[in-house]
Amino acid sequence: MIVAYYSLTGNTRRLVARLAPPGERVELTRDTTLTEPFVLVTPTYNFGEIPQVVAEFLESNNEYLVAVIGTGNRNWADNFAIAGRKVATRYGVPLIGTVELAGTPEDYRTLIERMRLLDEIH
Ligand SMILES: Cc1cc2nc3c(=O)[nH]c(=O)nc-3n(C[C@H](O)[C@H](O)[C@H](O)COP(=O)(O)O)c2cc1C
């Protein structure tokens, strides 16, 4: 399963490095096109927003979106990792986890197992 992610300050990039080998991870730009099943990992920015690059990427690349993982910082309370929830709602896919900053070994184990289960059905 491809893991597509956006990262401005590196936390999500460090998380994804623990979740997928180099050949199975893609750092998003506005020009990225994906034509096979992928899990999206997105931070939340600017008071609960989906990052603009992620929103634009999804407008033309939601067909193969299988699931989403939200990242963020718990300091943002009710808005913690809420971009992941927004993507899940907008595109009707499961939110398979929320992770603070770059995550913990426990987060890696949980997410790798959930992505393995998704691989079995996609
Ligand atoms: C201006 C700004 C706004 C943010 N807003 C939120 C937010 O609404 N919810 C949240 O959970 N985290 C928020 N964060 C925290 C980032 O999502 C968090 O630091 C994340 O790990 C950044 O991922 P990245 O390092 O991969 O870019 C915000 C950070 C900044 C700088």
Notes on the protein architecture:
It is a single chain. It is globular and about 35 Å long. The model has no long low-confidence stretch (mean pLDDT 97). The chain starts with a strand and ends with a helix. The chain contains 4 helices and 5 strands. The chain has one domain (2-121): Flavodoxin domain (Rossmann fold). It is an alpha/beta fold. The chain has helices spanning 11-19, 52-60, 82-91, 105-121, and strands at residues 2-5, 25-27, 38-43, 65-72, 95-100. The chain has a 5-stranded parallel β-sheet, sandwiched between helices. The structure holds flavin mononucleotide. Residues 7-13, 43-48, 71-73, 76, 79-82, 101 line the site of flavin mononucleotide (FMN).
